[in-house]
Amino acid sequence: MAAMKELVKGTDRYRHFIGGQWVDSTIKEWIEVENPATEAVIASVPKGGEDDADRALVAARAAQPAWEALPPQARGQLLRDLARLMLENRERLARVVVAEQGKPLQEARGEIEGAALYLTYAAEEARRITGDIIPSDMPNEQVWIQRVAHGVVVALTAWNYPAALMCRKIGPALLAGNTVVVKSHEGTPLSALEIAQLSTQLDFPPGVINVVNGTGEGLGAALVRHPIPRLVTLTGSVRAGKAIFRSAADDLKLLRLELGGKAPFIVAEDADIGAAVRAAVLSRFENCGQICICNERMYVHRKIADEFTARFVDAVKALKVGDPMALVDVGPKFSKAEVEKVERMVAQAKQAGASVLTGGGRMQGEAFARGHWYEPTVLSVNDNQMAIMQDEVFGPVVPIMTVTDFDEGLRLANESHYGLSAYVFTKDMRRLMRLVRELKFGEIYVNRPGGDAVHAHHAGLRDSGIGGEDGKYGLEAYFQKKTMYINYA
Ligand code: NAD
């Protein structure tokens, strides 16, 4: 079998992983993978197209019936084994994540552990794939409702967690008896390829896991258009989600769309200010602000606004920005385009009346001469309709707005076309009880920083998506139900 990669002009050139083999693309074009901290080209991957999509989907379809026929426990065991191999290779995989994505090494180690946990959690469900037996209205008859796989699943992932997002999808998809074709974001394709390589040490039947490389509009769109997959699961932008929704309509494909967010962070006058400051900093600046559930806009009660803001700005100023391989709090933005977007958004906010409390520009100095660096930035604003309060920044910038009371905070938080996560700091139980119905977000963190549990449910409302992942509801998405009427008269 061809190797996963070859050395071409001093850098690693990877192949696609299709049908258990490392194969070249039919298109002889390549995508360069860059290290966001240095702008050095660290590898290249094929720029796959229609033919590659077809080959991968055909391989996945061929493998699916036998895979689904295995006892779930056998599928679960392979997922456990893959998780074990990932943890044994944690350090190496974490360094791949840092090299292609730019998050600090200690966060990348956490990503690999989280990725492995998605697989082991899915494996634990192997003995709980249940159905229903219900009495019929007819004599001598039972009705059986069973869970069966969809068939082939296409999994498209974003660049902010290249290892974890892949495993979040393939864990439950494979456990349910589907086979998968994975396409990572073209800027961060290496983690998925390295995980596929680890799978070759195990007895996964060829074609159960396929990993292909290419752009979203090219290969990604070809995978979605293709008649073979029944389910497409995307983690990515609202733009891509809507394009996929349109394209999938022709064959009525099933979709799970996990899209962007614009999380409000509400701090009431009775909040524990120290805890709120710590949570607000972590929930904004982890992974350089590039998490869908990040704190994107803050509403602080006027009675505590001065104290909260002063302490928050001090904490932001203390963040250490630098080489993600060192012990730092914040690494680079992922790409040139991303840092330019953040720059544009801050300039526009300033023009619209925002004042800069700290940061507000690119990192200066020799250490930051190369790479995509932006200062941790806090803005003060007083208009909820400003673009910086409405559009996802997905970077190290957060606006703060003072509100007159809790109700105003709630109202402004809900004035958004996003609906993924939200944060609230208050000790008042009556207010907390109101959040269930009145705060229109799918994932609400109360008196704590963000971070979702593998056995909970991660789902956005409105433009943040349709579907949801993790836990029993996430797994459920990878099954369809079949009903049999069993007459034994
Ligand atoms: P993106 O939409 O550009 O890309 C996501 C994936 O979709 C990539 O693999 C890309 O190649 C592919 N793609 C893009 N256009 C496509 C098309 N027309 N057809 C098929 N595939 C296509 O998103 P991104 O820039 O990688 O990720 C950032 C976004 O992801 C942010 O908005 C962030 O909030 C969101 N995100 C959401 C979650 C969540 O769970 N809700 C988690 C992480 C990131």
Summary of the model, kept short:
The chain is of the alpha/beta class. It has 15 helices and 24 strands.
Please report which band the strand proportion falls in: under 5%, 5-15%, 15-25%, 25-35%, 35-45% or over 45%.
Answer: 15-25%
**What is the approximate shape?**
globular
Instruction: Look at the structure and give the mean pLDDT.
Output: 98
Radius of gyration: 23 Å
Report the bound ligands by name, code or SMILES. nicotinamide-adenine-dinucleotide
In the sheet with the most strands, the strands line up as 16-17-18-15-14-20-21
What is the β-strand count?
Answer: 24
Class per helix and strand makeup: alpha/beta
Helix content: 25-40%
Which ranges are low-confidence, i.e. pLDDT below 50, for 5 or more consecutive residues?
Answer: none
Give the CA-CA distance, first to last residue. 56 Å
What does the largest sheet look like? 7 strands, mixed
The number of helical runs is 15
Sum up the structure in keywords.
7-stranded mixed β-sheet; 489 residues; 15 helices; alpha/beta; 23% strand; binds nicotinamide-adenine-dinucleotide; 38% helix
Describe this structure in words.
- This protein has 489 residues and is an alpha/beta fold.
- The chain has helices at residues 50-69, 72-88, 90-101, 105-124, 162-175, 190-199, 216-225, 238-248, 273-285, 302-317, 336-351, 387-390, 406-414, 429-438, 471-476; strands at residues 5-8, 11-14, 16-18, 21-23, 30-34, 41-46, 132-135, 141-149, 152-156, 179-183, 209-212, 231-235, 254-258, 263-267, 295-301, 355-358, 377-380, 397-403, 418-419, 421-425, 443-446, 461-462, 465-466, 479-487.
- The strands form 6 sheets. The chain has a 7-stranded mixed beta sheet with strand order 16-17-18-15-14-20-21, with helices on both faces. Strands 11-10-9-12-13-23 form a 6-stranded mixed beta sheet, with helices on both faces.
- Strand 20 (421-425), helix 14 and strand 21 form a beta-alpha-beta unit.
- The radius of gyration is 23 Å and the shape is globular.
- Bound molecules: nicotinamide-adenine-dinucleotide (NAD).
